[in-house]
Amino acid sequence: MEYSQFDKTEYREVHPKNGLIYRFIKRFFDILLSLTFLLLLGWLILILMFIKFCEDGHNPIYTSIRVGKNGKLIKFHKIRTMKPNAEELKQELIDQGLNEADGPVFKMKNDPRITKVGKVYRKLCFDEFPQVWDILVGRISIIGPRSPLPKEVEKYNEYQKHKLDVKGGLLCYWQVQKNRHDMSFDDWVELDIKYVETRSLWVDFKILVRGFFSVLFDHTGE
Predict the structure, then answer these.
(1) Domain residues of the chain, as ranges?
(2) Which of 6, 8, 74, 195 is deepest in the core (most CB within 10 A)?
(3) Could you report the per-residue pLDDT of 19-61, keeping only the tens digit for each?
(4) How many alpha carbons lie under 13 Å from residue 155 in its C-beta half-sphere?
(5) CA dihedral (74, 79, 82, 83) positive or negative
(6) Rounded CA gap, 132 and 30, in Å?
(7) pTM metric for this prediction
(8) How far apart are CA 16 and CA 52, in angstroms?
(9) Within 13 Å of residue 32, how many CA atoms lie on the same side as its CB?
């Protein structure tokens, strides 16, 4: 299944696709870094999964269907940080008017669906580790806009869909902003499209370095 596409002719005349060399080098480093991470820290991922399983006895891996490049649906993996019935509880929270984000996304600073172990994992970004596998097999990249949920994309306007022009990723401009949790959905989209328009090896490197320091030293909004 793919989402209906829109006319990108004018957009691509102004912002042409990056060349084959850029895409090859980007993919090469995705494979190299993700494979190295798995070889060095695969044992840690297994321990984190076991701890999560011991918390509630449920599958520690959460598989989500996301929208990738050009509207293609992809599988997206994380260590589960929420209660098993999180989706049902999400609708209840929305009905109660507790969504603290604008636009089609849902966010709560103190989300009651997150478990005790889940809070620790989120603070330390441990829940993101399984996505390294998704990078290795090519579903997502290290650098790129976050792949959204299908329900969110259904509410996008034509301009917002431009963030789907590239492969999704772990890190992008939004993730390395210190005030990211105070930004509006429109601001988030603008940053994602900024990446689509300006992406290069140098831009990817800068985002990677800033993301590394953000994980280590910046836990704003946690």
Answers:
(1) 21-215
(2) 195
(3) 789 999 999 999 999 999 999 999 999 999 999 999 988 999 9
(4) 12
(5) positive
(6) 9
(7) 0.83
(8) 44
(9) 6
